Amino acid sequence: YFGRQCSANAVAGICKAHVLHPNLWTSLNVDECLMAGNKLFEKSYELLPPSYSNVIYLRPDELHSCVMFPENEIKFQVQINDEYYGTSMNNIVTVNHGIVNYCIDDAILCFLHNFNYGILTCQIQCVAILKIGMEYFLFDSHKRGKNGLPDCENGTAVLMSFNDINNLVLHLKNLFKCTSCLPTNTVQCNTCQFTIVPIFISNVTNISVNEQIHSSLNKNEGTKRMSQLELARNAKKIKNNNKKVKKNNDIQSNIQKQKVMLEAIPDSTVNLVNKIYDLRIRSTETRYARSEEMKAKNVQQIYDRYQTNAEVREIKGQQKKVKYQTDEAFRELHSSKMRQKYHDDELYHDKLSSRMREKYQTDEFYHDKLSSRMREKYQTDVDYHNKVLENVKNSYHTLQGAKRKSNYQNMYQSSKKTKICLHEKFNEQKKEMPTVICTCCAQLFFKKSTVSEFSLKIDQTLSIPDLCTYRHHLGENESGNVCSTCANQLKKGKVPHFAAKNGLVFDPLPQELTGLTTLEERLVSARIPFMQIRELGYQKQLGLKGNCVNVPIDINKTVTCLPRMDSEDDTLLVQLMRRMSDKTPYAFENVRPEKVFNAARYLVNTDLYKQHNITLNESWLQQFHDETNNSATDLISTSNTDESIEQADETDDLTDQQETLLTSGFVADSGVKIAPGEGNMPLSLTLDEDMDVLAFPTVYGGKQRIFKVKYTPVEMAKAEARHHDRRVATNIP
């Protein structure tokens, strides 16, 4: 059963602590607990019904109710109804289906407030926790190091003492963390369940020497699983007890012989012997008084014999009781000594107080006697009367302070839990994005900001399909969503202010304007808004720094600066400058000249560009085509001439062709630097009404929209930024 009897060992440790204070334990006492626990587990396992044949570990309530020690037989009870249950890494107390789920701190505090002995089970490991007086003890039979934590190589069973209950709780938390990380453990640390079961000692029976011998012999004959070490220790104890009995018998026989001899000796000889005996006693007493080592050794022997031998304790108790009743001086001395010990020794103070409290609660005669005596003393003794009043006041203030502290802690835990819930709710809501399209204004909203069309109660004269432009993209039985702003106006029988039917829609872009890059768009736009867009903070949001300067430009200047390329996919590096004297370009990028020409040709044919007298020099384009064709013809004739020259004189160089190729390569590599807005007067953003359409052809397509209602610039910006067509939100100059 090695490694399976930790519950039995814990019960044995509690029973041993009941008869012998843990501060007086030695390593032999720890071994006795382990031996007794092993016997208890074997006996309990043998008494189990056949249905428990596959059970490996036993709970405390499944153990036999009697623990056998060499000197005592102790019976105990397990109060399974008073069990405390909880999670090891929980921080607050919760209630699920009427069951209180404690955290480890509150469970230990509540348990040790109501009980003195208990067994704490976490997963498959059991330890004993004890409260004796103002001290707390932990008995752990597993392999532990000097610090009480797991040590699989050199570990032993440990008995640990704590002066503060918080230190006990801290140690248990560290123990749970260590045991949850073992390789054999499949339970995560934050889900370790624990239980605490109270243990009550019901009866303690002392075993005489002959019964010990007989019991040991019977057990040695009846079991084969007892270790050799236990057999040797029991045999040694029996042998020592026999020696003591024999020695006592020899001493008694010698005393009887000496008495007989003394009766036959004359009186003078007897007096001489008495004098010699007195001198020997005096010398021994003198040596005892002078030798501190001898005194300490003798006191320790007497103390050990008194603690371990129940018979000696009983005899000494009877002698002291008789002397206390007959000798007045001894009674007064003993009373003063006990009073002093009661005030000085905290352990004795707690032990006596608990014993008196228990007697006061159980013994009715003692209860009435003490109550009447205290009442009489309270009425006659002024000092005692004042002392009782002071204690009552202090108790009242202490109780009120404890209540306030408890209320504050409960309030703090509640607020802490509320903060955690709000934080988790905020993180969940932060993941949500505005993805729902309002079928009336075609803008994006959060799900919680919209309502279903079928839930609206509006005037029958208003037709939702006519007002809601994007309703036609849904099926007949599908329900669209309407934002709260449009829903409120529809309920009042009004057309929503931001309805897409009022003109807040974008026309499809022609093929010439699709796919234009940022710089290509700037080259064909009639306005360039010079501004600085920078990242703000660690969240990488974009913001405007400084002023926005609206500069009109001439498309002819920008387009004619670009050379025609052989293919539409050929690119050219273009540097857009504010002024030609600047060292750093406002923007630079590889552009497609052919794409720019096609976009400019389309834009100048729109009504808005014609209204602003923006034209493109088509004669320059035709001239560029003619020059390109002539260059190709010259190149063919030059190559034929070069071939004839090469046949005549192979040493001639093709200087002209090399210069032409170098020039072409230089233009393609170094690019073109232009400043189309240099020398032009900036226009006011408020006075230039068509500025947004002329500056962003890839958004508006060069066409001015017609609105049925009047919108402010703020309303326009809000509607375009939230529009489900993201061309405005993604177009950053």
Describe the structure.
With 733 residues, the chain is an alpha+beta fold. Among the domains are: 6-207, Cathepsin B, Chain A, CATH 3.90.70; 251-355, no CATH class; 518-637 and 658-704, no CATH class. 52% of the residues lie in helices and 15% in strands. The protein is built from 25 helices and 19 strands. Strands 1, 2, 3, 4, 5, 6, 7, 8, 9 and 10 form a ten-stranded mixed beta sheet that branches. It has a three-stranded mixed beta sheet with strand order 18-17-19. Strands 11-12 form a two-stranded antiparallel sheet. β11 and β12 (444-445) form a beta hairpin. The two termini are 80 Å apart. Mean pLDDT is 76; it is low at 181-190, 209-226 and 628-669.
Quick take:
The chain is an alpha+beta fold and 733 residues long.
Q: Kindly report the CATH topology of one domain.
A: Cathepsin B, Chain A
Distance between the termini: 80 Å
Low-confidence stretches: 181-190, 209-226, 628-669
Strand proportion, as a percent range, falls in 15-25%
Net shape: elongated
Task: Tell me the layout of helices and strands.
Blueprint: H1 6-19, H2 27-46, E1 66-68, E2 72-78, E3 84-87, E4 94-96, E5 99-103, H3 104-114, E6 117-122, E7 125-132, E8 135-144, E9 156-162, H4 165-180, E10 193-206, H5 209-222, H6 228-264, H7 267-290, H8 292-308, H9 310-326, H10 328-344, H11 346-362, H12 364-380, H13 382-431, E11 436-437, E12 444-445, E13 450-452, H14 464-467, E14 481-483, H15 484-491, H16 518-524, E15 527-536, E16 541-552, H17 555-560, E17 572-576, E18 587-591, H18 593-603, H19 607-611, H20 618-648, H21 655-670, E19 672-674, H22 691-695, H23 697-700, H24 713-722, H25 727-730
Parallel strand pairs: 3-5, 17-19
Antiparallel strand pairs: 1-2, 2-10, 3-10, 4-5, 6-7, 6-10, 7-8, 8-9, 11-12, 13-14, 15-16, 17-18
